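One chain given next:
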Amino acid sequence: MGPLTLAVDSKSCSGTSSGYGFADEYCKKTQYAPIGTRKSFASVSLHEDKPFDFLRTLFEGVIAGGTAGVVVETALYPIDTIKTRLQAARGGGKIVLKGLYSGLAGNLAGVLPASAIFVGVYEPTKQKLLKMFPENLSALAHFTAGAFGGVAASLVRVPTEVVKQRMQTGQFTSASDAVRLIASKEGFKGFYAGYGSFLLRDLPFDAIQFCLYEQLRLGYKAAAKRELNDPENAIIGAFAGALTGAATTPLDVIKTRLMVQGSANQYKGIIDCVQTIVREEGPPALLKGIGPRVLWIGIGGSIFFGVLERTKRFLSQRRPTLPEDSKQD
């Protein structure tokens, strides 16, 4: 995106002199003078001479997102299990530390397509919005792209999350049993239990986390005046993930309670869930599992964004190069 120019009326600045020295001088200096835009966040420039390859960006996003999602889920699944059991426990219930990898295989079957869909939607949406928005609104482009990716991925994420959390809390022993019994007892809608609370948590989470990550990364690159290496990407990802994870913990608690309640339906909805938790367990219960959640998402952000950027770079280095004459055409 090139610099903006200040246009001055040609009738007042061309032809005869105005008779006022300062006016003539002003016309000479400002007719095509570039002006800066106020940049409230880190800014990014996308040059118009680089064509936007939607299918290539989509493909690379799908591969990079799927790879990063599987790696981080496998590495940090036990911490996620402990967090889920802490949030699901009512009152002073004890936390069982056995079977911390319960439901991993079934969860990976959902994490792989969900992560692939998220990044596959996020990357081309981000690139398109960055071309449409002015430089000082790059944060809005990242935030909006994160929300779009979250909505698309939620269609796979929610059923996966329902099955995973039911297994983590000991309701089922295998993913196949979980799918079969949820379908028979609760019907298709059972796989989308807590969908509203899931969106309430994940849409702001995805949007804020990716916006923070991208803006911090752009700011760091501008200060360092070079491309970031893998450890730097990982550190920025960890910070963005931990901060966003802490801020959205109450939403995560509500989502967990609604998803694991099953056919008992002890909560009538999001508002009733909040009121019941506060009334029976006190406001601090809304922060249950914040320690494991911040640890899990902080480390997860480090791994996810580190693997994501490395995979994107690996794929970009293997793009087919066009001949020089075709580039000029």
